[in-house]
Amino acid sequence: MTTKFTLPPLPYAYDALGPYMSAETLEFHHDKHHQAYVTNGEKLLEGSGLEILELEDIVKESFGKNAGLFNNAGQHYNHVHFWNWMKPNGGGKSLPGKLAAKIDEDLGGFDKFRGDFIQAGTTQFGSGWAWLSLNHKTGKLEVTKTANGESPLVHGGKPLLGVDVWEHSYYIDYRNARPKYLEAWFDNLVNWEHVEKLFEEATA
Ligand code: FE2
């Protein structure tokens, strides 16, 4: 009935992000974990009263009211974007101009932002995500962390970049070394063009 809970194909080959994220990790993460959020979310949407909403609004409306649906819808939303927040030969320090200027203005420059983002992911206790988001109230960029399936969407912000720090995202490749995963991810995989696109949409 709905296409809100459809697993999108990865936008690159399973082995395209090596050596920083292996094909085995992507097979499990995309085909098993993300698929489970899609399957469960679709079931839990039925009869929830939120069927007509778009995914973003399902996430916002179920938060704090329908935990089962929220967890799966939130994780579906987060993962749909996560695959696009990465690309082969990503990372690097040369960000698109408008985004770079805003990071300088709000977050003290690229190096400070990089350190704060990695620190947020490292210190998120247990499963969750680290984020770069635009705070709708202040109009400023923020670095935050959230637990489980939460995101800045339910805290008054628009997610621009997020990294999954659930163990399923790094345990095969990095075992327990979450900081090593975060550094490799940030420096080699981030698709800054996609971040810029979301930033332009959020500020249009
Ligand atoms: Fe994940």
Topology:
Blueprint lengths: L22 H23 L9 H8 L4 H18 L12 H11 L2 H14 L4 E8 L5 E7 L9 E8 L6 H4 L3 H11 L3 H12 L1
Antiparallel strand pairs: 1-2, 1-3
Helix pairs in contact: 1-3, 2-3, 5-7
Bound molecules: fe (ii) ion (FE2).
Q: Give the helices and strands as they follow along the chain.
A: HHHHHEEEHHH
**What is the C-alpha radius of gyration, as a whole number of Å?**
16 Å
Sheet of most strands: 3 strands, antiparallel
| Count of separate DSSP helical elements | 8
Look at the structure and give the mean pLDDT: 97
Bound molecule types: fe (ii) ion
CA-based shape: globular
- End-to-end distance, in Å? 32 Å
Strand content: 5-15%
Helix content: 40-55%
Overall strand count: 3
Explained architecture:
The structure is a single chain. This protein has 204 residues and is mostly helical. Helices cover 50% and strands 11% of the residues. It is built from 8 helices and 3 strands; from the N terminus they run H-H-H-H-H-E-E-E-H-H-H. Helix 1 (23-45) packs antiparallel against helix 3 (67-84) and helix 5 (110-123) packs antiparallel against helix 7 (178-188). The mean pLDDT is 97. It binds fe (ii) ion. The site of fe (ii) ion has 7 residues, from helix 1.
